[in-house]
Structure to design on (409 residues):
C-alpha cells in the first residue's frame, strides 16, 4: 500500500511527524545546535506555529514574523527544556503568545480599540487567546497520533485529514489500492483507533 | 506503526459505534445499552469522540513554505554568531583546607556538603543543610544587583525542579533529584551552568 506522495514546499510529507518518542532525540540535537536536527524540528512544528499565528488573526508577513519570533525564543531557551514530552505544548504556547503580542502591536499601529479588534481578525479577549493553545495542542496531538497508527489507518487518515491537497474518495481509493466503497467503513474503524489512542494520551485532560 | 500491541476491541467497537452514531447511522444496540445503563459514561465518551472529530477536522495545516525553513536555518547560524545567549559553565573551585562558604543564610548544624563555583563575574555557593536541602547563593563579584533570576536543578533520574532566587541571590531545593545533578541559573540572557553537582562527593 502506498502512502501519500504529496510533499510540502519544504519537502516534508504531510502527517510525516515522528512518533512522540523521537522528540527527545530531536530536541537534544536542537540543544546541541545541530543544523540537521533544527531543520527537522522546524519542519515538524512549523505548520502548527504558523497555524497559531493565523488563528490569532495574523496574515501575510505578520505570520512569517510571528513564526521567526517563535524560533528565536526557542533557540534562546533551548537549554532550559529537558523534558521532550512538553515540547509540543511549549512550542504552541510560545507561538500563540508571540502571535498575540504581534497582534497587539498591530492593533496599536492601527490605533484601534477593543471594539475594532474583531475587524482586524484579532482575538478580542485574553480568554479567546488563552483557548487557542489548548485547541492547537489537540490538533498537534491528532497529527502525532495519526503518524503512530498502523500503516493502513495512517495512510487513510493522513490523506483524509492532513493532506493539503484534499483528494477525493476516488483518488484516495486509487492511491491506497482499496475499493472506494470501503473507504467509509475503514475510515470509521481508523477514527475509532485514533480516538482510543488519543484517550490514552490524555487528549481531553486540561493538564495536557 | 501500531501503538496498540493488543487493541482493546470492546473500546474500539464502542468508539466505532459512537462515530457512526454522530454521523447519522442507526445507533447500535450496545450503544443504546450504554446510554440507558451508564448515561454519564455515554456522555463522556461521546464528548471525547466529538472533540477528536473536531480536532481532526482542523488538523489539515498549511504546509511550511520553503522560505520559512530557509529563514529558520539562517536564524540558527545568526543566533550562534551573534551570541544571542550566553552559556557560562561554572568551574568547581578546588577544595581548600577549611572552606568557608559566603552563605548569608544562617545554617544550623553541620554541612556535609559544600562547594564553591566560580564563573565569569559570578560566584555560586552550594551547601547541603541538616535537613538534606540544597541551599545556594549566586553573587556578583562586584556586588552588582542580580535582577530576576531562577535556578533549575536537573537530576540524573530526569527529575527537574525550579525555584526563583530571592533578592540576595539565595535559593533552596528541598527535594533533590538523583545525583549527579546539573544546576543552571537563568539570569536575563545569561545561563550559568554547574555540571556534576554531587553532594555525595
Amino acid at each position: 500500500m502506498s502512502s501519500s506522495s504529496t510533499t510540502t514546499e519544504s519537502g516534508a510529507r504531510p502527517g510525516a511527524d515522528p512518533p512522540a518518542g523521537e522528540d527527545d532525540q530531536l530536541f537534544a540535537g536542537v540543544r546541541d545546535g545541530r543544523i540537521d536536527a533544527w531543520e527537522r524540528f522546524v519542519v515538524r512544528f512549523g505548520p502548527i506555529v504558523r497555524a497559531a499565528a493565523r488563528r490569532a488573526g495574523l496574515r501575510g508577513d505578520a505570520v512569517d514574523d510571528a513564526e521567526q519570533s517563535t524560533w528565536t525564543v526557542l533557540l534562546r531557551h533551548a537549554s532550559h527544556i529537558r523534558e521532550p514530552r512538553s515540547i509540543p505544548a511549549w512550542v504552541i504556547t510560545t507561538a500563540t503568545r508571540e502571535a498575540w503580542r504581534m497582534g497587539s502591536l498591530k492593533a496599536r499601529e492601527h490605533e484601534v480599540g477593543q471594539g475594532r479588534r474583531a475587524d482586524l481578525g484579532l482575538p478580542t479577549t485574553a480568554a479567546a487567546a488563552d483557548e487557542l493553545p489548548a485547541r492547537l495542542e489537540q490538533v498537534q496531538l491528532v497529527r502525532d497520533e495519526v503518524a503512530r497508527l498502523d500503516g493502513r489507518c495512517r495512510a487513510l487518515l493522513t490523506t483524509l485529514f492532513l493532506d493539503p491537497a484534499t483528494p477525493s474518495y476516488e483518488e484516495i481509493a486509487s492511491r491506497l489500492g482499496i475499493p472506494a466503497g470501503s473507504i467509509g467503513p475503514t475510515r470509521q474503524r481508523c477514527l475509532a483507533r485514533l480516538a482510543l489512542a488519543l484517550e490514552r494520551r490524555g487528549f481531553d485532560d486540561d493538564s495536557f | 506503526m501500531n501503538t496498540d500491541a493488543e487493541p482493546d476491541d470492546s473500546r474500539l467497537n464502542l468508539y466505532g459505534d459512537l462515530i457512526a452514531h454522530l454521523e447519522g447511522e442507526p445507533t447500535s444496540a450496545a450503544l443504546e445499552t450504554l446510554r440507558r445503563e451508564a448515561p454519564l459514561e455515554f456522555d463522556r465518551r461521546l464528548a471525547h469522540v466529538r472533540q477528536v472529530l473536531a480536532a481532526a477536522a482542523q488538523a489539515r495545516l498549511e504546509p511550511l513554505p520553503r522560505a520559512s525553513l530557509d529563514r529558520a536555518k539562517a536564524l540558527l547560524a545568526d543566533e550562534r554568531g551573534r551570541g544571542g545567549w550566553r552559556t557560562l559553565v561554572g568551574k568547581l573551585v578546588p577544595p581548600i583546607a577549611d572552606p568557608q562558604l559566603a552563605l548569608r543564610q544562617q545554617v544550623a548544624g553541620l554541612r556535609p556538603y559544600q562547594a564553591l563555583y566560580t564563573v565569569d563575574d559570578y560566584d555560586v555557593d552550594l551547601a547541603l543543610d541538616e535537613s538534606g536541602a540544597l541551599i545556594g547563593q549566586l553573587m556578583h563579584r562586584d556586588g552588582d544587583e542580580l535582577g530576576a533570576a531562577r535556578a533549575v536543578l536537573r537530576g540524573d533520574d530526569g527529575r527537574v525542579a525550579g525555584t526563583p532566587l530571592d533578592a540576595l541571590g539565595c535559593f533552596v531545593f528541598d527535594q533533590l533529584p538523583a545525583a549527579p545533578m546539573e544546576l543552571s541559573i537563568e539570569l536575563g540572557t545569561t545561563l550559568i551552568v554547574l555540571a556534576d553537582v554531587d553532594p555525595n562527593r
In short: Strands of chain B lie at 86-89, 91-92, 113-119, 122-128, 134-140, 149-154, 160-164, 170-173, 181-187, 190-197. The first helix of chain B runs from residue 9 to 22.
